[in-house]
Amino acid sequence: MMRSRSILLAASSLLWLALLSVAEQRPHYGGVLRIAARGTPQSIDPATLAASGSANISRLIFETLVRLDDTGRPQPLLASSWQSEPGHQRWRISLRDGVSFSDGFPLDAASVVASLRSSNPDWKVVAVGEMVIIETPSPEPVLPAELALPLNAIVHRAGGRLSGTGPFSVSDWTVGKHLSLQANDEYWHGRPFVDSLEIAFGVADREQLLALDLGKADMVEIASENIRRAKADGRTVFSSEPAHLLALVFTNDARSEDEAHARSALAASLDTTSLGDFVMQGGGDPTASLLPNWLSGYAFAFTVAKTPDHAPQERSQSRRSPSWTLAYDSSDAVAHVIADRVLLNARDAGISIQLVGSGTADLRLVRMPIASLDCHLALTQLATTLQLAPPKFSSDSVEDLYTAEKGLLQSRRVIPLLHLRTAMAVRSNVRDFNMLPDGTWQLSNVWLAPEKP
Amino acid sequence: MSFRRRLLLLFALTVFVSVAAVSAIVLLTARRAFDRANDDQISALVAQFTQEFSRRGDEVSKRLQAAASTPEASHIAVAAAQTPSRYTAFVADAQAIAQIEQLDFLEFADDSGTVISSAQWPAKFGYQEPLAAGSPSTTPFLKDEETPSGHALGLFSIRTIPTGDRKLYLIGGIRLDRSFLSSLKLPSGMRVMLYENVDHGSEAFSANHLVTSGPVLSDPSRLESLVRSVQNNGRPESVTIQWGSGESELIHAFPLAGERDQLLGILLVGNSRQIYTDFRNQIRSAALLAAGAGLLLAIILSSWAAARVTRPVEQLARAAHQVAEGDWSASVTATSHDEIGQLAESFNRMTRDLLDQRERLIQTERVAAWRELARRLAHELKNPLFPLQLTVENLLRSREQGEDQFNEIFRESSATLLAEIANLKNIIGRFSEFSRMPQPQFQAVQLDELIENVIKVFQAQLERGGVKCQCELSTPQPIAGDPDLLHRALSNLISNAIEAMPQGGTLGLRTTQAGGSARIEIADTGPGLAAEDSARLFTPYYTSKPHGTGLGLAIVQSIVSDHGGRISVSSEPGRGTTFIIELPRNDDKLSASQAD
Fold first, then answer.
1. CB distance A82 to A94 below 8 Å
2. Shortest CA distance to B45 belongs to which of B231, B250, B241, B198?
3. Which of B535, B524, B529 is nearest to B568 (CA)?
4. Contact status, residue A446 vs residue A33, Cβ threshold 8 Å
5. Which of A78, A266, B440, B491 has the most CB atoms around its CB within 10 Å?
6. How far is B126 from chain A (nearest CA, A)?
């Protein structure tokens, strides 16, 4: 009797352990996912979030009409289909049925029109029945990709409150510090597994790592220069493709051939390999192009001669000794080191550079995200952000894209330095997290496994 | 300058010189003492700096040793030992270690001199560090370190970590900044500064490289010449600087050399001279006070001395002045028995002797005058008496002659007697006239007119004697005089002149007027006078003429003198004689006479 009872107890224990094991490996609902982030957004408006580097937060709350897949092709999201009239100036968008905002308001053509008008004042957006008609001032062959930008997320504004159709809705918001999101039970694509998200903003890199290691955060951002060390320390790190561009941008066009040669000398003098290896610790790839190779496929074709003599030769063709000021984000220690390295490299080439923390300068050290997985749109967005002349495309061919980018580079207004990766480190209990090549988080399928004692 | 003033001046000068001498000696002594104290303080401070420099250097060495013992340093050492070396992971390590070990500067470099990681300039990886070579000394040294914000002066040390057959160099240090200087214990009134003689472009002096232990200098450019001097000479220098606030400060500059003897820093030790300046001002104030008091004392003493000494002297001076003016009865009262009293007594004895001698002289002169008068009278009277005697004797003898002869002789003798008697009467009249010379009755006299009247009187005599008269009369202004007496005097002189020219000649009469006096010249072309005759010409009873009484010119002189004028003679033998009369206008008497 005793023996049979013992056997029964052992069998039940094994069954319980097996059940527990299965439970750890299968998604389940519940839990609070804690995220620490560097940015300090001042609003949860999609445009503001995107501008402050918090586009991923925006995607948790708001959705766009279109999304881009890994290859950059538009895929339906809130829009079920779209069609352009000849000339790509007039687009007809059909909306997905059965979608509601988190405040319960149904997604309809009128709400989409109101949202798009707010984010794109230049567009003429009207509702025709359940269809949305968009007319742009000029031909926009990449309008679907443009509609996928976080800026164009659909927002319902009611009584000063913003609501989206995303998997989470806002439950609490302290400007620039803390955001609480709760799972949208009515999410049209299915409720997320986690019940809520607690996002702390303005947390420094070192504190984020500390919070992760102490179990006070489940997901933290990893700066590009810390990716290698974070991995070396045994953390679970998800990194994007090099999706940010670090570049030197001249405020004005070169005024003379002399200055153009001096700018070429500066570009040739910069040891971008060392910047990538030493300063960014492998978190960035040296580049001479605006778009990364994984996106455009032709970036390797852009090179800058880096022989020891090239910079002095270019410099010697400039009759005047150039002296420029370089502005950088003085609150960013890495930007400081990069600016210092630029100063040292330039000095070796006989170019005088004076660093300034902010304000107007001849040169700016800028870091900006590749805004879209659509190359044409990404290049256009880069040119706009860098205040360069917008590239003109005659077709959507790669050759045309290459020619446009080459034109931008030959203006000598911008010197690409590195393409940088973004990364997130997650705790071991965070399951099914994924990051797209452009750094977009995939949180809708994330679930939290029970903590091991 | 009076004796009293001289005495006062002497006292004041004595006091001033004494006070000045004492003040100068005190100031000189104080300055030497101050300088000695200053030198001692400077030496002590420099020794303290050297000691602190050494202590901090040891501290840097220890911190560097601690840095070399960190795991990060070990990782870098391992990487440096590998071939090829990969240093990419260590860029930020130097900064982190430097922060922990409290080092301002820290660099890791391999044995090829390549910077692996730099705390002060993280972007400097891959660049060369010349000190990372060979077996460097562990002795702390000064170094000019380039940083992103410019050059800085630091106290450095080097440590090496052997990595197999290679070496890893740790070059670290601390900045010589305000905190370093503040750790020095400064005596009151002293301060210490450090000039970082690091590369600051084309400028030889930059105020930004001056590190002070206290407040920032208001005008650091005043140190420029001192700094330049040390830069040029490389020797300690010192200079006194007058700051804008008026305070002066003695600044000593000591060169600080780097590991290759290059001038990297200048230690500036300032010692305020305010204490000395205050002391000097106090001495000067005291000296001025003493001089003032001394001056007051000099006045009092000189007054007292004057009462004791100068008053009898002044009495003596006044009495002597009286004597000089003819009052020989003046005397002083001797109030003491000292030299001044004896002097007063001698003065009184001298005036008494003078009075006695004058009395005796007067009596002597009086006797002499009577004798001269008797002689002259005897002489004058003897001349007519002798012809009278002969005439009477001749008349007595003529009684024995015939009547006709007697009558003839009687007639001639009577005429002779009458003539001689007349001569006697004339002589007696002149003496009588000389004794009865009246005082002039002043009235306005036109000299030119008076002279013309006199000439008229002598006109016939001039023509008879063949004397030509040349007149140059130019005294239009009247003078106060007695016309009768002046007429007599002029007549006498003209008469003498005519008599001096028995063979004829020229009588010159000339008048001029200058200032407040008139000048009359009466010149003849006669034989002239010898010098001794000219000297005695106005002496009474002296005459150069055979039958003169010697009273004529004495009367002339008396008249001229009574008019307040004077007469002189200019004559040489063979060149004639000129009498010159100078008469004052006597304005007061002229006004009185015109008022009458």
1. yes
2. B250
3. B535
4. yes
5. A266
6. 9
- B445: phi then psi, degrees, rounded to nearest 5: -125, 125
Strand partners, B472: B510
Residue B585 to residue B417: CA distance in whole angstroms: 48
Kindly state the DSSP code that residue A233 receives in the 8-state scheme: T
For B171-191, the three-class secondary structure string (H helix, E strand, C coil) is EEEEECCHHHHHCCCCCCCEE
- The verdict on A228 touching B (C-beta cutoff 8 Å) is yes
User: Would you place residue A134 in the very low, low, confident or very high pLDDT band (cuts 50, 70, 90)?
Assistant: very high
Evaluate whether B56 touches B180 at the Cβ level (below 8 Å). Answer: yes
* Separation between Cα atoms, residue A290 and residue A303, nearest integer Å: 12
Find the closest chain B residue to A348 by CA distance.
B127
Q: What are the two backbone dihedrals, phi and then psi, of residue B250, each rounded to the nearest 5 degrees?
A: -90, 120
Contacts 24+ apart (CB under 8 A), B425-431: B427/B380, B427/B381, B427/B384, B427/B549, B430/B549, B430/B551, B431/B377, B431/B549, B431/B551
A278/B88 Cβ within 8 A: yes
ipTM score of complex: 0.77
Check: CB of residue B113 under 8 Å from CB of residue B128. Answer: yes
Q: How far apart are CA B333 and CA B315, in angstroms?
A: 8
Residues 6+ apart with CB under 8 A from A172: A178, A179, A180
Cα distances from B431 to residues A383, B255, B538, B541, in angstroms, run 153, 116, 16, 10
Nearest to B123 among A228, A229, A341 (CB): A341
Which ranges in B469-550 belong to alpha helices (H)?
Answer: 483-500, 531-536
> Is the per-residue pLDDT at B419 higher than 70?
yes
Assign B77 to helix, strand or coil: helix
Q: Nearest CA to A224 among A267, A150, A277?
A: A277
Tokens matching residue A392: 């003109």
Both tokens of residue A63?
């959705």
Q: Is the pLDDT of residue A1 over 60?
A: no
Closest in B88, B123, B124 to A281, CB measured: B88
**pLDDT tens for residues B334-373?**
777 777 788 888 888 888 888 888 788 878 877 776 777 7
Cα–Cα distance between B20 and A279 in angstroms, integer? 77
* Minimal Cβ distance to A337: which of B87, B122, B126: B122
* Cα(A54)–Cα(A37) distance, integer angstroms: 9
Helix, strand, coil percentages (3-state) for chain A, rounded to 5, are 35, 25, 40
pLDDT tens for each residue of A401-442: 999 999 999 999 999 999 999 999 999 999 999 998 889 998
Asked if A163 and A102 count as a contact pair (C-beta separation under 8 A), the reply is: yes
d(CA B469, CA B471): 6
Inform me whether the pLDDT recorded for B272 exceeds 70: yes
Residue A176: exposed, middle, or buried by beta-carbon count in 10 A (0-12, 13-18, 19+)?
A: middle
